[in-house]
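Complex 593.
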Amino acid sequence: MKQSKLLIQTLREVPRDAEVVSQQLMMRAGMIQKLAAGIYDYLPLAFRSIRKFEEIVREELNKDGCQELLMPMVQPGELWQESGRWQFYGKELLRFQDRKGADFCLGPTHEEVITDIVRRNVRSYKQLPMNLYQIQTKFRDELRPRFGLMRGREFIMKDAYSFCVDDADADREYWVMFNAYKRIFSRLGVKFRSVEADSGAIGGSFTHEFQVLAGSGEDAILSCNNCEYTSNIDKTEAPLVPGQDHGPAFELKKDHFCTPGVVGQVEQAAGMQDADHDGMPISQTSKFFLYLCTFFDGSTKLVGAVLRGDHEVNLVKVKNYAGAMALELMPIEEAEAFTGAKSGFMGPVGLKNVQFVVDRSLQSAVNLTCGANRTDYHHFGLDPARDLPGCTFADIRMAAEGDPCPRCGKGTFEAFRGIEVGQVFKLGTKYSKSMGCTFLDENQLEKPMVMGCYGIGITRTVVAAIEQNYDADGIIWPWPIAPYQIHLLNLDPSNADVNVIANRLEKELEAAGFEVLHDDREGMSPGAKFKDADLLGFPLRAMVGSRGLKEGVVELRDRRTKDVRKFKPEHMVAETKMARDRILLELEEAGGR
Ligand code: ATP
Ligand code: MG
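Predicted structure with magnesium ion bound:
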């Protein structure tokens, strides 16, 4: 392919609204352009990478007998009514009506449509298990689309759905897909982790995310440095901390400490002084949050969460404890009106119509301080089990780096940031029951199929690969998804001899199976071509110029190592093959676990 004919506009400057490296580089390299918030054009170079990654996904899924199909992006609202999700899927679901007034939506995911297909076409246990997938554009009206293709509103996803006769077979299929995902991300050579995760609103019972490790990742991951336990922090089990000895239990002394105007937890703890106390250890203070929970049937409830002063609340855990569809912190003005105190002085004691959940690290705690629901005052002597009748103790805190691992009890947690590129879910019978997707077993008994669903963010994975592979000059493409493998630079297109050799090398390399972008542009200095080539970041750069040809040599440069080899033009194909083999070997060694 001749670069003079390629649709590409590289940029010198970093676009102002590009926040993360991958987005900056993709925009500067002329790969993507923004059409609207979270909606991008995939220009030819980006499209080639996307297609290549899709092919890797297809190859690995087809090996496991998955069948590819393609479902409509526009979905009838009726199906979503049937599954029950029409009411509670939030604003991410873009809904609209056709000219007859019938409800439709743009597919953010396809459980409803696939379940409908299978219930219409599969009747017997003999046809199961079945695993169906598609690679398709999804639309989610994300609240904050950002980071280019990383969190778009429109993006490409591979979504697969499995249908099995029972739980055991659904488990088997789950691990088949889990292993296929490992192969897929290993083939890219990216560093990744499979992590235990929360199953969220999709309604699953068991799930892993695949996370590409990158500082810009939106997810926090904790991983034990001794055992295999690796988990999204939303889900990470917090270790039980040893009970603190706060002496023999006192009565609850109301409005005991007066710490006017001091709101921060540490400052408050220091300010809690009386004849016996010269401040409190922060572990003896408690913090309190009021949440408004909304349930799937539309009802609401107030949940009050109580934690140790130095612990962080984990909203996902509180939401799961409550069994809520959504949870939001009570707006500050409402909370002030409800408790009668300013922020910093709110507490659980005496509040009516609130369901209390207390973090389990306070299970046997006594003599705690807590907000008095009177501005500037704290109670002293809180014993949650005694003073909050009907409260439940549960794990609702964020585990943290350095915490001992609750699984093996030997290691401690290390923290990473990750980009979620894929997720595997055990769905169970949620959709098959609500939508009547059943089969007849050997005894002619009708049973619901047991489902799983499995997503890979195709466009997000390409972005994640860039987040892990770049330097100050530009992208360093992993070989398997590089838009082209070889960037052939003609450094003197006005010189007829150079042109002849460059065109010949282009043909020879292509004949040997390489994908070549031939920079034949006229009127550009070699320096400008080098800059563009570094920015585009194809794995190998072949260079032909009059200076080299005078000595009878052309050059080949490795984008990652910057190693340059010089040799006669007739050795180009052999040298390129050797360089490729070396790169692929390194890639294999770099692959994540
Ligand atoms: P997130 O937590 O990042 O919003 P999700 O858990 O809602 O993602 P899934 O429903 O599991 O996403 O979708 C499967 C995959 O699709 C994700 O693992 C991710 O790689 C990709 N994906 C999801 N949302 C987006 C988005 N807004 N832009 C690009 N890719 C996305
Ligand atoms: Mg997910």
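The chain has three domains: 49-207+419-461, 253-394, 484-590.
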